[in-house]
Design a protein that fits this description.
The chain has 212 residues and is an alpha/beta fold. The chain has a single domain, classed as Rossmann fold. The chain contains 8 helices and 5 strands, in the order βαβααβααβααβα. The chain has a 5-stranded parallel sheet, sandwiched between helices. Helix 1 crosses helix 8, helix 2 runs antiparallel to helix 3 and helix 4 runs antiparallel to helix 5. The radius of gyration is 16 Å and the shape is globular. Bound molecules: thymidine-5'-phosphate. The site of thymidine-5'-phosphate has 11 residues, from helix 4. Thymidine-5'-phosphate binds next to helix 4.
Amino acid sequence: MPAGIFISFEGSEGCGKSTQIGLLRERVLATGQSVEVLREPGGTEVGEEIRHLLQHAKAGHGMMPEAELLLFAASRAQIVREKIRPLLEAGCLVILDRFLDSTTVYQGMARGLDLPSVRAINAFATGGTLPHRTIVLDMDASVAWNRIHASGRELDRMESQPLEFFEKVRQGYQELAAQEPQRIHLVDAARSPEEVHADVWNLWLEAQTHGV
Ligand code: TMP
């Protein structure tokens, strides 16, 4: 049984995930504990190449949803074995910016790929390494969508999806949270960063006490 704690953050684009991960990281570091933040897809050399292909490369434009699913899974298989497991064994708090639930929601529930196949591929990629807690930053889909479109920066392949896709993503996370209430927690992300962080902090404290 690993000694560290594994927390993943999920939510649609524009939900404030990076801000919340940064706040948790800083506060845990201030207590003297070791923390590592990793992102998916990416987090390893192999994974970052895959991320580029998935998000920005010209070659990715004609990508089939099945190929997309397997690329996310390939990045995950690498990061679990190369980074997450050794860090947990060393007693680290490992924070993942997205993990397997992104695949279930985006490729399975929103893109509509066969869910049992998505779950089987996720299980193969993770080899049973699951987060102790998953924090979903829940937010009205149109608010998230408008935030991204108001940002003025160039949007990647997923961010350019229509509002309807964002709605399916939100609903997907809500369904997962209902299915796995022990692991997956919805946090209302429509509040101030400080208020959201207070909930995140409590979940972290709870994971420390009961999570492992
Ligand atoms: P982000 O983490 O920087 O927001 O971007 C990652 C994008 O990739 C985001 O749009 C969600 C998407 N994604 C999937 O569709 N499936 C996955 O398994 C993962 C990890 C991410």
